[in-house]
Amino acid sequence: MEHYDLIIIGGGPSGINVGISAEKAGLKYLILEKGMLVNSLFNFPVNMTFFSTSLKLEIHQTPFISHGDKPTRAESLEYYRRLVDSFNLNLHLYEAVEKMEASATGGYVVTTEKDTYAASYVCVATGFYDTPNPLDVPGEDLPKVKHYYDDPHAYIGQEVVVVGAANSACDAALECWRKGAHVTMVIRGAEISPRVKYWIRPDIENRIKEGSIKAYFHSELERIEETEVVVRTPEGTLVLPNDFVLAMTGYRPNYDLLERLGLPIDEEDACKPIFRKETLETTLPGVYMAGVVCAGLQTSKLFIENTRDHGDIIVGDIVQKQSVTA
Hints:
Elements: E1 3-9, H1 13-25, E2 29-32, H2 39-42, H3 54-57, H4 73-86, E3 91-92, E4 97-102, E5 108-112, E6 116-124, E7 145-146, E8 159-163, H5 167-178, E9 182-186, H6 201-210, E10 214-216, E11 220-224, E12 228-233, E13 236-241, E14 244-247, H7 255-260, E15 265-266, E16 272-273, E17 287-289, H8 310-325
Parallel strand pairs: 1-2, 1-6, 2-3, 6-17, 7-14, 8-9, 8-14, 9-10
Antiparallel strand pairs: 4-5, 5-6, 11-12, 12-13, 15-16
């Protein structure tokens, strides 16, 4: 069994960030990613433009080249491919971590679906975008239900229900409507989310006001069927013809994985993993958290741009510990 100074679980922006810090520090490390490189970003809408500027997304003084001030999804994928190549990161893709156990000789044993590794330290950088919040209604498992919005072309001329009222839902509703879909929004609250981007909010509100996009507020899906959906509204239950449901209901950390890794959660504080803010070390000695997963269910609190220092914080703490035990 090969031994590493540091195993990083997650090959997204945060895992890459920690990996580069480890590479610079001369640590023997391995990044394990269950899917493709920056798997979450790949699942972003095809036409997405980031809210942050390229400058704010840069890590390790590596320029983020984009045609505009705010980069596109395609430009971000290219940026992270370039980082992996430039720093020659040690990365295993399509290798999901199954469990982690304390080693009798110190450190941890990490087991994946393909192999087993030993490590003195472990960093969990798994994000949250891979785990959508479920609707928990009958019919959610039908193929026409999507928790990731991809490209509006697929919905031309179709009856599309968009569930949600935040940025993803509003973007999907507007794009699909503009490409010729018949769009209905089902919204649990009383209004479009106040967190919607300032240039999107008046657009979606005007489309709803003029009737181009139908919206049911204070409403929820009751069930989803092959050719229709049942919606519970303040005025009563409605049956609407339907071809696709875009469930833009948000995402959460992979708590099943965190439980399998033995990481405790603070259920009274937005289900955040418990860690020291100064070092990002959890209650498991030598196990760290990095990136947006640190925010638990408060997924709008942490982003790539305000977690860029996590790699250096974690690796700096590891190097310090190594110097003490040397």
